[in-house]
Structures are given as C-alpha cells and as structure tokens.
Description:
Blueprint lengths: L1 H18 L2 H18 L1 H15 L5 H23 L6 H7 E4 L1 H8 L5 E5 L5 H9 L5 E5 L6 H11 L5 E4 L4 H9 L3 E5 L8 E5 L2 E5 L2 H9 L3 E10 L2 E9 L8 H22 L16 E8 L3 H20 L3 E8 L5 H13 L2 H4 L12 H9 L4 E5 L4 H11 L2 E5 L12 E5 L12 E4 L8 H14 L9 E7 L6 E2 L2 H18 L1 E7 L5 H11 L7 E3 L9 H8 L2 E5 L3 H9 L3 E5 L2 E2 L9 H11 L4 E3 L4 H9 L11 H11 L1
Parallel strand pairs: 1-9, 2-5, 2-8, 3-4, 3-5, 10-11, 10-12, 12-13, 13-14, 14-15, 16-18, 16-20, 18-19, 20-21, 21-23
Antiparallel strand pairs: 6-7, 8-9, 17-22
Helix pairs in contact: 2-4, 3-4, 12-24, 13-16, 17-20, 18-19, 18-23
Amino acid sequence: MKEFLIYHSIRIFGVFIRYLPMHTALAIGKFIGILAYYFDYRHKAQTYANLKMAFAESKSPDELRKITKQLFKNYGQNFIELFRLPLLTPEKFKELVKIEGKEHVAESLKQGKGLILLAMHFGSWELASLSCAMFDYPYKVIVKPQNKYTQLDNLLNSYRECNGSVVLSRGLGTRDFVKSLKNNEIIGMVVDQGGRDGVRVPFFGRQASMSVGAIRMGLKWGVPICFCIIVREKGPYHRMIVHPPLELTKTDNFDQDVVNNLEKISQLMEKFIQQYPSEYMWFYKIWKYSKQSNICIISDGKTGHLRQSECIGRMVQDALKERDIQSSIETIQIVFKNKFYQRFFSLLSRMVHPVIYQGRLEFLKQLLTKESFQKVMAVKADFFVSCGSSVAGINYWLSQDHNAKAIAILKPGMLTAKHFDLLFLPQHDVKTPPRNQNVVITKAAPNLITPQYLKEQSEVLLKHFSHLKQRLRTKIGVFIGGDAKDVYLSENMIRLIVHQLKQICNEMNADILLTTSRRTPSSIDHLLIKELKKFPNCPLLIIANKENIPEAVGGILGLADIAVVSGDSISMVSEAASSGKQTIVFSPHSRAIVLGKNNKHVKFIDNLNKQGFIVSADVKNVGQAVFDVIKNKIHTRQLQDNKAILEAVRKVI
C-alpha cells in the first residue's frame, strides 16, 4: 500500500510538472529543495558533515552552510528535470545543453571497442545520461536496481529510456554490457559509489570506495574511457564536458594499475567538486568504507579526566583495528573565557537542538579563548570522546556538527545519556541503574593500565632513572594527589604516612618510589622533599609541579610491588587497582562533615574495598596495612573494566 500510494502520487506529480512552463517547474523544484533543507535534518546533517570533512581548511562554517542550502536547491531542480525528460527532443536538448568535447566520442568509437562514458553523481546527471543518447549513437546506462520499490524503479527507468537509452541493471546486465561494447556502443557508468566491493582511493584526503568496473574493462580490453561532467549554468541551461579518453597506466601489476588509475579519476573529480561544491551529491556517507578514521579527545585540562578519555580513545582504536581500520587520535583542550560562559554554554547545549546550531559554531568564538576556538574549528573526526560535565556540551555539539559518534565519561552535566552514543558511568556515580542501553557502568574510572602499558612505561622510566635497575628490594609505589572539590590532604596526614612508610622501609628493607600530582599543594611538596630527599630508601621522588615526567604513574606502577594511593584521586586509585599490584588507599579529609558517606570519594573507596580490589586504611594504619601485604596476610584482586568497555565500544562502531 505504501509503494502504491508513493508510486501514483509521483506519477501524477510528474504529469502536473510536464504541463507547467520550464521556469515555473524549476521554481517549484527550488521550493521543494528549500523545504527539504529545513525539514530533512538527517540528510542535511550528513551533507554538512561531508562538506566539513572535505573543506574544513579552506571554507568557513558559514560558507559550508550556504553550499549546503544551494545543494538542496540544485537537487530540487534536478528532481523536476527528471520528470520532464519525456518532453525533451533533440532540438530542445541542443537548446538546453551545450556540449564540449563531443568529438572525443566520435574519435574513441573509431577504435571499434565501444566507449565508456564515466560520470559521478554531479549536477543533473540523469539529464546528462539522456544527453548521451542524443549523440546519435546506441547508448546504454548501467544502474543499480531499487529492489525495495520495484514500481518506482520501473517508473524511473521509463524516464531514462524515453529517448532511446537502454537501461542495464548492475550485475544482471553484465552479458549485455560486454556484448554492447563488442558492438561498438556507448555505455554510461558512475564511478563514485563503489560500496563494499569497490576499491578505496584518496578522496579529499581520506579513502573513499570507488567503482572499478570501468577501469577493469579499460585495462583488460582496451575500451576507451571518457570522463564526463554536467554543470548547471543558469536556470534550465547546462554545460556538459566530455574529456579526451583517459591515458590508463598499465604495468605488470593489474590490481595496482586499477588503484593508480582510480586515483587519477578521483583527482579529476576533486577538481570539479572544488569548483562547483554545491553540484555534488553529498547526501550519502562518502567515506563509509574508508580504512581510515579520526578520533578527537576533548579535554577539560584535568589530567585524571584526560587519562580516562585516552583509555576510551585507545579502546576505539583497538575496536577499529579489529576491522582493519587505522585511526589517529587528536586531543584538543577546551578553555572557556570565564566560569560564567562555561555555565551558560552548559545550559545552551541542553536547550538548543542541533538543527539550529549545525554550521554555526563560530559563535563559540565569544565563549572560548582564541587558541581553543581555533582548535575546535579545525578539528575533523569520526569519534569524539570527553570526560567531565564542563566539556560534555562541546562533545555533543561537535559530534552533531560532524555527524560523528559521541562518547562521554562521567555525568554529562545538564545533558542526558540520550545525547550520546555511549556513556560510561562509574558505579559510585550511579544512584539508580539506568535503563538506557547506551550506558555502561564501570567499577572504577576507565584507565590506560594494561600489562603491556605498564611494561612500556616502566622501561621509559628506567631510562631516565637507571639507578633503579640496581635496587632489587621490595618497592612501595606511593601516589600523592591533592585538593579536590569535596576533599583535601593535610600536611599532618602526609607527615604521618611518610613516617610510617620510612619505618616499614627500614624494618623490611624496602624502597619508596613516590610521585605527586599537579594538584598537590606546595606545602606538601616541600614536606615530601624535606622528609624523603635524603632518605636512603627513597631512590625516586618526583614532584610533578617541578618536573614533568609523563611516565611517572605508569612507570612506578610497573616497577612497584605495592601501591599506596591517596583517595582524593579517583583516577589514580582506579589505575592502581587495575594494575594487579596490591593496592592500599587512604581516605583524604572531607571538606564538610555533613557530606559524610555521601562524599563520592568515600563511596568509591568503600565500593572497591568491599569488592576486594583495594585495602582501605585509616591514615594511622597505612603502615600496618603495608606490613600485612608484605607478609602476605592480606591480598587484593585485580580490577578489570576494560573487557566491558571494549565490548561496548565495538557495538558503537
């Protein structure tokens, strides 16, 4: 019934259009295009995203938006011209279409091998197909059958055949295809939608699948191939350009020859698309079958959040690699001019629909610092990953602007899970189990820790501090964080822990490998230097605020037998628990007593302690906990979230 209604509606509409004057009909086509531009958000979003991928470096968002709108107008007119094909006569055609290079057709046919006119989905290509039939030579066109709506497919083919063209279905017409070439006839084919079976070649900087049938025929049988294009000049008037036969590269490597010659055609396509970007059909996923992908990490400047995002970014890379897709990761840091702008944008991202702001991200220039804004405008990605509420809105907006996948970690502020393709929430942040299938609950914060990662990081660390290789004692890795929103570390707390650890090291002949974070207060940095700088059993003391050692955390975790971590850093606790090392965590001070057990840090530590992933110790009992671990009286088990994370990412991809 659906096909019946659509078929008869379009057929009646076609009759109506053919009764109207040409300019009136095209005006209706423009109007249809404008309606589609404003109401067909799916194709509009895909079109703009494709244009941005192709022209981000050379055109502004405003220019891309104008091209998108003009594209819809053009295709509205193309739609009308399709219905008017039965009205065209050779005389009318000569009036509407000016042909350049017609002599190349005659010259090619003199070889007696037929001719392939190779085109792309550009301009009014259905009119171009009919134009070929006006050459006074037998002409056939290869088309992809629309199996879903057979009546509509037959109606479309009847328009294509109205002036002597013959339609051959792709696949079913192969025998007729070969026979036609042997009869020295012209075959029309398109090259730019190779699909799953095509060959991937560079197209605007990324691999796109192109159809190989024409090139194979040209290489195998010497069939001349002329690339042709049709461009709308003004209103109903067009210019069709037929290029001289392609000079195909031929070597002993047939498959490589196919690729090399397709690359030449791709470059020719790019040349015309750059001249007339609104004439190309940008509606489909051009790079769907590419073996290249880009991942963008959106950072809020917090190291812990960045490391969580890097974990998910690498998981996306691993999942893509399983599909033989190579990917790169780019990180951009978002810096708002002030806190008010940050909160304003969070509210805006919740209230405004993407259909309004796609192509209008230049307004972010008012909210972001100059450097941050430039990075946002220059990025091109298929996946966006962020951690934290302050950048969740940017993630959502950029992913919508690029028609890309959005992956968020932690509660996304005023946004919800439905705004993202995938949302990771640690269990301590979840009050009630979510119903959304795109939400994954993790036991801890996502992190980069794997056996291979620990090995690599520890090897790098040993290159910087080679003296550690000579010390074969039990190693206690100590990770000191700093002040956070709800918790803080005090000098007395750290002094007490250091004294206990020094005592353990003297009694058990152990070493301390300690690193701080950039959040560590300067007073605690000075305390640690005073207590441990000259302590013989502390061969490694890294003060993050004084020296940048990127491999400090991973390297120490790789070398240590026991990890002692301050509970203010959920990221560091998660990394230690995931390393497989015996992990002891001491709780920081809460900023307000009323927070009590509702403090997320306290809840997080309690959860992991109950499940056996860490040992939660009071500040006064850290030394005893370390002693018990060394004596094998207590054990912790390794936390493993990565399997669940990778499986979720696979589904998104």
